[in-house]
């Protein structure tokens, strides 16, 4: 039982836990892997790159033989931009499904890339549904691609990617998925959910350090991507064909980050892969949500849409509550939390991913209880308009 023999070590050197959706708390072994220098042209490093690509493809599960993996330097958004610019042809048109900051960023990226697009904007946290996608695709024949965010990290909502995929391919279009914050913890098997490409990065559910992203794409899509990209550096076709020819990244790779990532991948495998990782995060989320509810906090989302990645809580209506003070008090207790991103009501977020288990999440709840007491907040329930908002979501 994990609770007794927890392999999670409290961060050494007195570091706080990062309850954030990446960068997040990594293991000591992962960090230690960066204490060595690697030559990017050397055979050892080329082997490391190939090993990583193979392991990421394997992680997709059934149907992965049609896919290849292309890593890309930079933060996750660089990889999203590389995916959009490489797979959407210059005369293509995209339907962006947006319900938060990352959907909006995808639309903004397409604007920069001068790719024609329309946005289904569901506001802060309503999920885009399959029927809505089907309806839009039926009325607009120019749309070639649909872009969906898997877990919209700004609210923590787990979008219904399966019905979105069905609607997309029933209409003969192609799906590109930003699964940055979910890949590695939630299965997206190509044999069950069809898509052209999926993108994630080193510093989310695989629990590596930041420095690169990766795109898992159909080989047919990678072949067809030649000449599409607006950007030399972000050209996935070029990165892919160069890597297949030489085993090397084009331009300087984040060598230390890759070395750390391989250790993180090994831990992921030992934990039971995507299923094992997802199970720990789900336990984390359950411990967090039931604990926070027991001291009076309310979640933005109902059970149906909660993800095991990150949870949004409403700020208490009590006038003694002040988020920045709460943040500081939590930090003093060793926990870095995350501000909310809602427009209608105040909120904050707590991540469930990274080197943490349910015991640590129970300590987070204790710290929240103690922080409320120190602030003189006697009632953690949210303002009534927050609950009205939530009702709207559930209907
Ligand atoms: C983290 C994240 C990104 C990428 O963000 P970066 O700050 O560029 O790493 C993109 N989409 C989602 C859903 C994310 O959670």
Quick tags:
2 domains; binds pyridoxal-5'-phosphate; 395 residues; Aspartate Aminotransferase, domain 2; alpha/beta; 14 strands
If you had to describe this structure to a student in words, what would you say it looks like?
With 395 residues, the chain is α/β, with parallel strands linked by helices. The chain has two domains: 5-25 and 273-394, Aspartate Aminotransferase, domain 1 (Alpha-Beta Complex), CATH 3.90.1150; 38-256 and 263-269, Aspartate Aminotransferase, domain 2 (3-Layer(aba) Sandwich), CATH 3.40.640. Helices cover 41% and strands 15% of the residues. A seven-stranded mixed β-sheet has the order 2-10-9-8-5-3-4, with helices on both faces. Helix 4 (101-113) links the parallel strand 3 (93-98) and strand 4 (116-121). The radius of gyration is 21 Å and the shape is globular. The two termini are 39 Å apart. The structure holds pyridoxal-5'-phosphate. Pyridoxal-5'-phosphate binds next to helix 3.
